[in-house]
Amino acid sequence: MNIRMGSLHYFLSVGKLTCIRFMLFYTLASTLTANCFGQDPNLPPSGNFDLSKWKVTLPDQTEALEAELTSGFESENEFYTDPATGAMVFRCPNDGETGGSTYPRSELREMLRAGNTSISTQGIGLNNWVFSSSSLANQEASGGVDGTMTATVAVDHVSTTGESNKIGRVIIGQIHASSDEPCRIYYRKLPGNTKGSIYFAHEPTTSSEQWYEMIGSRSNSASDPADGIALGEQFSYEIDVVGNTLTVTIMRDGKDDVVHVVDMSDSGFEDDWMYFKAGNYNQNNSGDPGDYAQVSFFALDVSHSSPNNPPSVSITNPSNNDTFIESDDITITANASDSDGTISKVEFFEGSNKLGEDTSSPYSFEWENVAEGNYSLTAVATDDKGSTTTSSEVGITINSQPTGYDAPYDIPRFQAFIGGSKLQAPTSSTIATQSDLINGYSSDNFYVVDGDKVAFNQTGTSMRTELRHETNWVITDGDRSLHGRLKIEEQTCDQVTVVQIHDDANEGSGPNKPLLRIYKHLTKTPVNHLWAAVKTDDTGDNTSHVDLGEAPTEYFGFDVRLVGGNMIIDIDGDEKANLDVSYWTFPSYWKAGVYLQDEGEATAYFDELYEGDGTEVNHSPSVSITSPTNEESFTPGSDITIEVDAFDTDGSISNIEFFQGNEKIGEDATAPFAITWNSVPVGNYTLTAVATDNEGATSKSLGIDISLGVQYSLTTAITGEGSISLNPTGGTYAENTIVNLTATASTGYQFNGWSGDLTGRQNPVSITMDSDKSVEASFVPVYTLTTSIIGDGSITLNPSGGTYEDGTEVTLTAIPGSGNQLQSWSGDASGTEDQITVTMNSNKSVTATFGDALSVENIEESNYKLSAYPNPFDLMATFEYRLSAVTEVELSIYDVMGKKVEELVNQFQSQGNYSVDWTPKNDLPNGLYFAKLIIGKETKSLKILLDR
After folding, report:
1. How far apart are CA 616 and CA 651, in angstroms?
2. What is the DSSP letter of 831?
């Protein structure tokens, strides 16, 4: 059936079109778009598309093979070129037939043999293709390896009758295997919705079908998808397979691509054969026989690669089961190679989340600021032919930051030593390299406290957390020393070693024993003393234990100096031992940390550790705040006296500086050291003191927390999408502070009210902090109602406005211009009543069409203009009529029994002359028929005779 108006031609499928103005706009827009693809509406499908490697299957199970298809094959109303757009149209009724399926189709099937009928269409052979995950023999025997199919389509019509689980769905592209389908892309639009959804199925041979929603929902009762695709709207899809990776992409102008990747490693297709299918596979076999689906293709392209050896790839760093601390930066490195080509890129993944990629060797990625958790890392190498290989998984653990964590270790008089060391725990195996340490490595057993102290911690039997300095030396190399300051806490084992000189058996024939161990013993007489265990000869079998005095309970300094073959041990500047160790000739190295000699636990805190040249050094002073006490409370406005205790073991204190947070609040250079902090306002504060000795060395005290006045917390929560800003900012406030809260709705939402310790819809609002408060802001979705007008008239809204809360009922009243009347509503409302109601459960768009009011004379005049020719007719009859105004028109064909045979027009039409062609179906018998034209309330009948 063709409708001609002037020089414009419209191809209309059987069904109701609501507005000819929309049809005109769509046809023109589609023509312009189609021209971008260079399609000629006057050519058959093979004139616009390369169909040399396809066959087509029609709804009656007939097929046109490659040769016939490329010779200009068309099938009227089933497979043809759209005369307006040049698109390749696939039309399939609900009652069609199909082979091997209960659903009908008008669909292309890929035929790589390109007309060579000596090649079998089945099995692994030159007519089909395989995945590159298949064996190399299968790849070489096939017509192609892997594949990509890209198409630009518009779904023009979907079924609207039949079973609810089948209505409105159609398959527009797929990969078919020998019996299952690795991919089927569905378009589905339900009758009550204005837009359709896109989803696809993956059907493994090894398990049940898998479904992936890309746009909207596949549910039988899905709501109108806000980002859906309307009938007639052009979009593109791509089905891409490389190895065992299936990638489906939906592309639309002006919108982000929607991409979903499926790992087919366990889907069972490695030894199967494939072919693409494209067109209209109508998934409704239950609707009315006249109901149908129609899909137009504006572009279709398929490509395959040749057999290709996949690349190889492995992660070289980190190692499996490595541990890190949250916020660490982790360098992931990989080795990748390709035996028959080159590596184009290596991608790095955590689970399915792509972290980044590198296109040149050495392949690496810097994963920054990693959060706490367990992660699985893989690397995917892609070669120059697009084949990919995924490495084995590497599992790593990111632990939480211990209290006081502060990386990197920018701690005075510690950095150089740690930068030249590696960390060993719990045995002597290395768990952190020099690079790891310099970049801020931390763990539950090795972390920073208060920003300037490093904690070493261990629990168990013969367990260690120790820094092993990487530089080996022998005593005859010259004088050297190790200096440090530490405190031992939480010791439950009898003895814990904190400093060692250990020989490196790998460098020679040493006994693999320490020349020196400085340890604290809880029970050895005298108890709670520091001891030095020193080997007395080069066999390493004999040991002398030297008492270094009572172990300090606070930080103490130590020096181990090797001068002229002698070992001198100082504790807090006091020489405790001077021993001849010139007999020790083995390569040795420094160690420091905690090493449990028996079962228990211990922690050592170091705030100094560095190598020296054997000369005596200046030790940092000690300082602690004695008043106020930790967590002491005061009345707001009080004057607070801060007192400290400070001493220096090898000199004198020159100055004490007092801080509140990072703010210096005073200093004192004369003992007893103290300042008065006047008129302290309401708040919570942390106090510290920094002592400087006569040689410029400094030390910082632990923090003391104090509070002034009552503090209350304000917690906020949000329902919906939006945010809350506070003035003043913060979550904790002094008593009776007035806090202003402002609610700001996100796009598509509006503020709906406060709850909790505030109620009402006023915004902004204030709250007085006389107790702990909890406030929640509610935001609700709002939807936009847009209206447009065709003709002369206007629309009023009640309630007024264009934005409404979810569920609001809006009454729209049409007011015609002078001499006009409302013809119809369209869009998200339909009908001819002057007043309609729209429920705002999504964004809505409504159009009112106004036209001249028809008089009886106009209607009668138009009735007399109905005519048909030729009459009688054999192949096609043409009906002509004239409209003098916009009105609703129905033109239908009836048999002599009064049964409607076909509906040709059912829509509003503008003033003008119309011509409608009718080509009866082949199975319609010869005889007398009636054409009925209904205009407004008037009907005109005309007899016509079919005589083939």
Report:
1. 13
2. B
CB-CB neighbours of 580 under 10 Å:
11
Is the confidence at residue 408, as pLDDT, over 80? no
On whether the pTM is more than 0.85, the answer is no
Find how far residue 35's CA is from the centre of its chain: 37
- Nearest Cα to 580, choosing from 544, 530, 531? 544
Laid out side by side, the sheet with 312-317 consists of 312-317, 330-337, 363-367
User: What are 624's two structure tokens?
Assistant: 């602690």
Mean pLDDT, residues 281-306 taken together: 92
Q: Which whole number is the average pLDDT over 109-113? A: 96
CB atoms within 10 A of CB 559: 24
User: If DSSP codes are grouped into helix, strand and coil, which group holds residue 435?
Assistant: helix
Taking the C-alpha atoms of residue 593 and residue 496, their distance in angstroms, rounded to an integer, is 9
Closest of 903, 855, 859 to residue 883, by C-alpha: 859
Q: Which two tokens stand for residue 764?
A: 């902004």
Judged by DSSP in three states, 457 sits in strand
Burial of 497 (0-12, 13-18, 19+ CB in 10 A): buried
pLDDT tens digits for range 80-104: 999 999 999 999 998 876 666 788 9
- Residue 351 — left, alpha, or beta (φ > 0 → left; ψ -120 to 50 → alpha)? left
**Is the confidence at residue 945, as pLDDT, over 80?**
yes
Residue 681's CB: how many other CB atoms inside 10 A? 11
Contact yes or no for 57/109 (Cβ under 8 A) = yes
Domains, the chain? 1-36+854-948 (2.60.40.1930), 73-305 (2.60.120.200), 312-399 (2.60.40.10), 415-612 (2.60.120.200), 622-708 (2.60.40.10), 710-853 (no CATH)
Nearest to 189 by CA among 234, 152, 155: 155
Cα–Cα distance for residue pair 271/635, rounded to 1 Å: 81
